[in-house]
Design a protein that fits this description.
globular, alpha/beta, single chain, 7-stranded mixed β-sheet
Protein backbone atom coordinates (compact mmCIF):
# COMPACT_ATOMS: atom_id res chain seq x y z
CA UNK A 1 0.00 0.00 0.00
CA UNK A 2 1.41 3.40 -1.00
CA UNK A 3 2.08 5.91 1.75
CA UNK A 4 0.04 9.11 1.59
CA UNK A 5 2.17 12.22 1.15
CA UNK A 6 1.38 15.92 1.09
CA UNK A 7 1.28 17.35 -2.45
CA UNK A 8 2.99 20.55 -1.28
CA UNK A 9 5.68 19.41 1.19
CA UNK A 10 5.80 15.75 0.08
CA UNK A 11 5.98 14.84 3.75
CA UNK A 12 4.40 11.53 4.76
CA UNK A 13 3.83 12.85 8.26
CA UNK A 14 0.16 13.56 7.63
CA UNK A 15 -2.98 13.21 9.74
CA UNK A 16 -6.23 11.61 8.60
CA UNK A 17 -9.10 14.02 9.20
CA UNK A 18 -12.14 12.37 7.64
CA UNK A 19 -13.03 9.58 5.21
CA UNK A 20 -15.94 9.86 2.78
CA UNK A 21 -17.85 7.19 0.94
CA UNK A 22 -18.03 7.84 -2.79
CA UNK A 23 -21.73 7.01 -2.78
CA UNK A 24 -22.24 9.94 -0.38
CA UNK A 25 -20.28 12.28 -2.66
CA UNK A 26 -22.34 11.15 -5.66
CA UNK A 27 -25.54 11.73 -3.71
CA UNK A 28 -24.33 15.16 -2.57
CA UNK A 29 -23.55 16.38 -6.08
CA UNK A 30 -26.85 15.06 -7.39
CA UNK A 31 -28.81 16.69 -4.56
CA UNK A 32 -27.06 20.07 -4.51
CA UNK A 33 -26.03 20.61 -8.14
CA UNK A 34 -28.12 18.08 -10.07
CA UNK A 35 -24.92 16.63 -11.56
CA UNK A 36 -24.13 12.92 -11.76
CA UNK A 37 -20.44 12.40 -10.88
CA UNK A 38 -20.57 8.59 -10.67
CA UNK A 39 -18.24 8.10 -13.63
CA UNK A 40 -15.70 10.57 -12.22
CA UNK A 41 -14.77 8.13 -9.45
CA UNK A 42 -14.77 4.93 -11.57
CA UNK A 43 -14.51 1.97 -9.17
CA UNK A 44 -13.26 4.00 -6.19
CA UNK A 45 -15.30 3.43 -3.04
CA UNK A 46 -13.90 5.97 -0.58
CA UNK A 47 -11.72 9.05 -0.45
CA UNK A 48 -10.02 10.68 2.55
CA UNK A 49 -9.14 14.17 3.71
CA UNK A 50 -5.69 14.67 5.28
CA UNK A 51 -3.78 17.49 6.96
CA UNK A 52 -0.03 18.03 6.72
CA UNK A 53 1.45 19.74 9.81
CA UNK A 54 4.58 20.75 7.90
CA UNK A 55 2.77 22.65 5.13
CA UNK A 56 -0.61 23.19 6.89
CA UNK A 57 -2.26 22.01 3.66
CA UNK A 58 -5.45 19.94 3.68
CA UNK A 59 -5.75 17.56 0.75
CA UNK A 60 -7.88 14.71 -0.54
CA UNK A 61 -6.37 11.33 -1.38
CA UNK A 62 -6.63 9.83 -3.87
CA UNK A 63 -6.86 13.15 -5.77
CA UNK A 64 -9.74 12.63 -8.20
CA UNK A 65 -9.98 15.59 -10.57
CA UNK A 66 -13.07 16.39 -12.60
CA UNK A 67 -13.17 15.57 -16.30
CA UNK A 68 -13.79 18.05 -19.10
CA UNK A 69 -17.39 16.83 -19.22
CA UNK A 70 -17.79 17.59 -15.50
CA UNK A 71 -16.62 21.19 -15.96
CA UNK A 72 -18.75 21.65 -19.06
CA UNK A 73 -21.77 20.90 -16.87
CA UNK A 74 -20.63 23.36 -14.22
CA UNK A 75 -20.18 26.09 -16.81
CA UNK A 76 -23.87 25.89 -17.58
CA UNK A 77 -24.58 27.22 -14.10
CA UNK A 78 -24.99 30.96 -13.64
CA UNK A 79 -21.98 32.89 -12.34
CA UNK A 80 -19.47 30.01 -12.65
CA UNK A 81 -17.33 32.40 -14.67
CA UNK A 82 -17.83 35.81 -13.06
CA UNK A 83 -16.72 38.89 -14.99
CA UNK A 84 -16.02 41.15 -12.02
CA UNK A 85 -14.19 39.95 -8.95
CA UNK A 86 -12.50 41.89 -6.17
CA UNK A 87 -9.49 39.58 -6.56
CA UNK A 88 -9.06 40.83 -10.15
CA UNK A 89 -8.95 44.42 -8.96
CA UNK A 90 -6.40 43.58 -6.27
CA UNK A 91 -4.19 41.53 -8.60
CA UNK A 92 -4.23 44.20 -11.30
CA UNK A 93 -2.24 46.46 -8.97
CA UNK A 94 0.76 44.15 -9.39
CA UNK A 95 0.75 44.43 -13.20
CA UNK A 96 2.54 47.19 -15.11
CA UNK A 97 1.65 48.43 -18.62
CA UNK A 98 4.86 46.96 -20.06
CA UNK A 99 4.42 43.49 -18.56
CA UNK A 100 3.89 40.20 -20.36
CA UNK A 101 1.17 38.33 -18.45
CA UNK A 102 0.28 34.63 -18.40
CA UNK A 103 -3.02 33.58 -16.79
CA UNK A 104 -3.46 29.87 -16.08
CA UNK A 105 -7.02 28.59 -16.10
CA UNK A 106 -8.28 31.86 -17.54
CA UNK A 107 -11.86 30.79 -18.29
CA UNK A 108 -13.31 33.25 -20.76
CA UNK A 109 -10.44 35.71 -20.00
CA UNK A 110 -12.49 38.12 -17.89
CA UNK A 111 -9.34 39.23 -16.06
CA UNK A 112 -7.66 40.27 -19.31
CA UNK A 113 -10.18 43.05 -19.88
CA UNK A 114 -9.38 44.56 -16.47
CA UNK A 115 -5.62 45.00 -16.83
CA UNK A 116 -3.21 47.08 -18.87
CA UNK A 117 -0.23 45.10 -20.11
CA UNK A 118 2.00 44.72 -23.15
CA UNK A 119 0.91 41.13 -23.84
CA UNK A 120 -1.66 38.73 -22.41
CA UNK A 121 -1.74 34.97 -22.92
CA UNK A 122 -4.32 32.69 -21.32
CA UNK A 123 -4.29 28.92 -20.79
CA UNK A 124 -7.61 27.13 -20.37
CA UNK A 125 -8.80 23.54 -19.89
CA UNK A 126 -12.33 23.97 -21.27
CA UNK A 127 -12.78 24.20 -25.04
CA UNK A 128 -16.03 26.12 -24.53
CA UNK A 129 -14.27 28.77 -22.44
CA UNK A 130 -11.42 28.96 -24.96
CA UNK A 131 -13.87 29.76 -27.74
CA UNK A 132 -15.61 32.36 -25.55
CA UNK A 133 -12.26 34.06 -24.89
CA UNK A 134 -11.17 33.94 -28.53
CA UNK A 135 -14.48 35.45 -29.62
CA UNK A 136 -13.53 38.51 -27.57
CA UNK A 137 -10.15 38.71 -29.26
CA UNK A 138 -7.96 37.31 -26.48
CA UNK A 139 -4.97 35.04 -27.06
CA UNK A 140 -5.98 31.84 -25.28
CA UNK A 141 -4.82 28.27 -25.90
CA UNK A 142 -6.08 24.92 -24.64
CA UNK A 143 -2.82 23.85 -23.07
CA UNK A 144 -1.45 22.89 -19.67
CA UNK A 145 1.05 25.17 -17.97
CA UNK A 146 3.47 22.21 -17.90
CA UNK A 147 3.41 22.01 -21.71
CA UNK A 148 3.44 25.77 -22.12
CA UNK A 149 6.55 26.09 -19.96
CA UNK A 150 8.56 23.91 -22.35
CA UNK A 151 8.33 26.53 -25.12
CA UNK A 152 7.99 29.67 -22.96
CA UNK A 153 10.81 29.41 -20.45
CA UNK A 154 11.16 32.62 -18.39
CA UNK A 155 8.91 34.49 -20.82
CA UNK A 156 6.51 36.38 -18.52
CA UNK A 157 6.75 39.21 -16.01
CA UNK A 158 3.59 38.06 -14.22
CA UNK A 159 2.09 34.58 -13.96
CA UNK A 160 -1.31 34.31 -12.28
CA UNK A 161 -3.96 31.69 -11.61
CA UNK A 162 -7.31 32.55 -10.06
CA UNK A 163 -9.27 29.76 -8.35
CA UNK A 164 -7.16 27.07 -10.05
CA UNK A 165 -4.66 25.79 -7.46
CA UNK A 166 -7.33 23.94 -5.48
CA UNK A 167 -8.29 21.91 -8.59
CA UNK A 168 -4.78 20.68 -9.40
CA UNK A 169 -3.78 17.02 -8.99
CA UNK A 170 0.00 17.46 -9.30
CA UNK A 171 0.56 20.58 -7.18
CA UNK A 172 4.35 20.38 -7.35
CA UNK A 173 4.46 20.15 -11.15
CA UNK A 174 1.91 22.96 -11.49
CA UNK A 175 3.83 25.38 -9.27
CA UNK A 176 7.19 24.49 -10.83
CA UNK A 177 5.83 25.03 -14.34
CA UNK A 178 4.36 28.39 -13.25
CA UNK A 179 7.83 29.41 -12.07
CA UNK A 180 9.51 28.10 -15.21
CA UNK A 181 7.32 30.45 -17.26
CA UNK A 182 8.22 33.38 -15.02
CA UNK A 183 11.19 35.70 -15.56
CA UNK A 184 13.67 36.15 -12.70
CA UNK A 185 12.21 38.72 -10.27
CA UNK A 186 8.79 38.15 -11.84
CA UNK A 187 5.53 38.18 -9.90
CA UNK A 188 3.51 35.02 -9.16
CA UNK A 189 -0.13 35.45 -8.09
CA UNK A 190 -2.39 32.64 -6.89
CA UNK A 191 -5.95 32.99 -5.59
CA UNK A 192 -7.87 30.20 -3.91
CA UNK A 193 -10.76 29.68 -1.49
CA UNK A 194 -9.46 30.39 2.00
CA UNK A 195 -9.46 27.63 4.59
CA UNK A 196 -9.44 30.42 7.20
CA UNK A 197 -12.78 31.76 5.96
CA UNK A 198 -16.28 30.67 7.00
CA UNK A 199 -16.34 28.32 3.98
CA UNK A 200 -14.46 25.80 6.12
CA UNK A 201 -17.58 25.30 8.26
CA UNK A 202 -20.20 24.99 5.51
CA UNK A 203 -21.61 21.43 5.62
CA UNK A 204 -22.42 19.50 2.46
CA UNK A 205 -20.56 22.00 0.30
CA UNK A 206 -20.29 19.92 -2.87
CA UNK A 207 -17.98 22.30 -4.72
CA UNK A 208 -15.42 22.12 -1.93
CA UNK A 209 -15.12 18.35 -2.43
CA UNK A 210 -13.70 16.10 -5.15
CA UNK A 211 -13.94 15.96 -8.09
CA UNK A 212 -14.03 19.78 -7.88
CA UNK A 213 -11.64 20.84 -5.08
CA UNK A 214 -8.68 18.59 -4.26
CA UNK A 215 -6.77 20.80 -1.81
CA UNK A 216 -7.66 23.37 0.84
CA UNK A 217 -5.31 26.30 1.46
CA UNK A 218 -4.87 28.20 4.71
CA UNK A 219 -2.89 31.43 5.03
CA UNK A 220 -0.09 29.43 6.61
CA UNK A 221 -0.02 26.95 3.71
CA UNK A 222 0.22 29.78 1.17
CA UNK A 223 3.03 31.40 3.16
CA UNK A 224 4.92 28.10 3.45
CA UNK A 225 4.64 27.60 -0.30
CA UNK A 226 7.18 30.41 -0.61
CA UNK A 227 9.62 28.56 1.63
CA UNK A 228 9.34 25.30 -0.31
CA UNK A 229 10.06 27.03 -3.63
CA UNK A 230 12.58 29.65 -2.60
CA UNK A 231 10.20 32.53 -3.36
CA UNK A 232 9.95 35.92 -1.71
CA UNK A 233 6.55 36.15 -0.05
CA UNK A 234 5.13 39.62 -0.75
CA UNK A 235 1.52 39.84 0.33
CA UNK A 236 -1.65 38.03 1.32
CA UNK A 237 -5.03 39.65 0.66
CA UNK A 238 -8.49 38.50 1.81
CA UNK A 239 -11.55 39.75 -0.01
CA UNK A 240 -14.17 41.40 2.19
CA UNK A 241 -17.32 39.45 2.96
CA UNK A 242 -19.48 39.73 -0.15
CA UNK A 243 -23.04 40.99 0.28
CA UNK A 244 -24.45 37.92 -1.48
CA UNK A 245 -22.60 35.68 1.01
CA UNK A 246 -23.84 37.53 4.12
CA UNK A 247 -26.86 35.29 4.68
CA UNK A 248 -24.78 32.14 4.16
CA UNK A 249 -22.15 33.44 6.56
CA UNK A 250 -24.77 34.07 9.25
CA UNK A 251 -26.23 30.60 8.78
CA UNK A 252 -22.78 29.00 8.98
CA UNK A 253 -21.76 31.05 12.03
CA UNK A 254 -24.95 30.21 13.93
CA UNK A 255 -24.78 26.52 12.99
CA UNK A 256 -21.20 26.28 14.27
CA UNK A 257 -22.23 27.95 17.52
CA UNK A 258 -24.97 25.35 17.97
CA UNK A 259 -22.59 22.48 17.20
CA UNK A 260 -19.97 23.84 19.60
CA UNK A 261 -22.60 24.14 22.33
CA UNK A 262 -23.54 20.49 21.81
CA UNK A 263 -19.84 19.52 21.58
CA UNK A 264 -20.55 17.85 18.26
CA UNK A 265 -17.62 17.63 15.80
CA UNK A 266 -18.01 19.21 12.38
CA UNK A 267 -18.46 16.83 9.45
CA UNK A 268 -17.98 18.03 5.89
CA UNK A 269 -20.74 15.67 4.77
CA UNK A 270 -23.54 15.49 7.30
CA UNK A 271 -26.88 13.89 6.41
CA UNK A 272 -27.79 13.16 10.05
CA UNK A 273 -31.15 14.18 11.48
CA UNK A 274 -29.46 16.38 14.09
CA UNK A 275 -27.30 18.04 11.45
CA UNK A 276 -30.28 18.78 9.23
CA UNK A 277 -32.29 20.09 12.20
CA UNK A 278 -29.53 22.47 13.29
CA UNK A 279 -29.11 23.66 9.71
CA UNK A 280 -32.81 24.52 9.48
CA UNK A 281 -32.67 26.33 12.83
CA UNK A 282 -29.58 28.33 11.90
CA UNK A 283 -31.15 29.31 8.56
CA UNK A 284 -34.33 30.47 10.34
CA UNK A 285 -32.51 32.57 12.92
CA UNK A 286 -30.12 34.01 10.33
CA UNK A 287 -33.08 35.30 8.34
CA UNK A 288 -34.72 36.59 11.52
CA UNK A 289 -31.61 38.48 12.64
CA UNK A 290 -30.96 39.79 9.14
CA UNK A 291 -34.46 41.28 8.86
CA UNK A 292 -34.46 42.87 12.29
CA UNK A 293 -31.27 44.46 13.46
CA UNK A 294 -28.18 42.68 12.20
CA UNK A 295 -27.21 44.95 9.31
CA UNK A 296 -23.56 43.94 9.49
CA UNK A 297 -22.60 40.34 10.38
CA UNK A 298 -19.94 39.60 12.96
CA UNK A 299 -16.52 40.51 11.56
CA UNK A 300 -15.63 38.04 8.84
CA UNK A 301 -13.45 37.76 5.77
CA UNK A 302 -14.74 36.69 2.40
CA UNK A 303 -14.11 33.32 0.81
CA UNK A 304 -11.20 34.23 -1.51
CA UNK A 305 -7.57 34.78 -0.57
CA UNK A 306 -4.82 36.01 -2.92
CA UNK A 307 -1.13 35.29 -2.35
CA UNK A 308 1.64 37.21 -4.12
CA UNK A 309 5.26 36.09 -4.49
CA UNK A 310 8.42 37.22 -6.26
CA UNK A 311 10.64 34.73 -8.05
CA UNK A 312 14.20 34.88 -6.82
CA UNK A 313 17.06 35.70 -9.15
CA UNK A 314 18.27 33.10 -9.83
CA UNK A 315 15.27 30.95 -8.73
CA UNK A 316 16.00 27.94 -6.63
CA UNK A 317 12.98 26.32 -8.25
CA UNK A 318 13.14 22.86 -6.68
CA UNK A 319 12.04 21.55 -3.32
CA UNK A 320 14.91 20.39 -1.14
Amino acid sequence: MLEVSCPLSHSQNVNLMETFQVVDLVYLYRKVLQIDVTSEFAALQEISLYHCPESDLQFFDPPIAGSAQFYEKLQQRDHYYADNKDEYHYASQWIQPGDRVLEIGCGKAAFASQIRCAEYHGLEFSPTAVEMAKSQGWQVTQETVQDHAVTHLESYDVVCAFQVLEHVVDVRSFIQASLNCLKPNGILIYSTPSLDSFMRWIPNCALDMPPHHLTRWSDKALQRLAQFYGLTYLDLWHEPLQSFHRQLYLETWLRKKLFDRLQRPFRAIDFSLLGQTLTVLSRFYAKLFGRRSLQTPPVAMGITVVAVYRKSNPARGEID
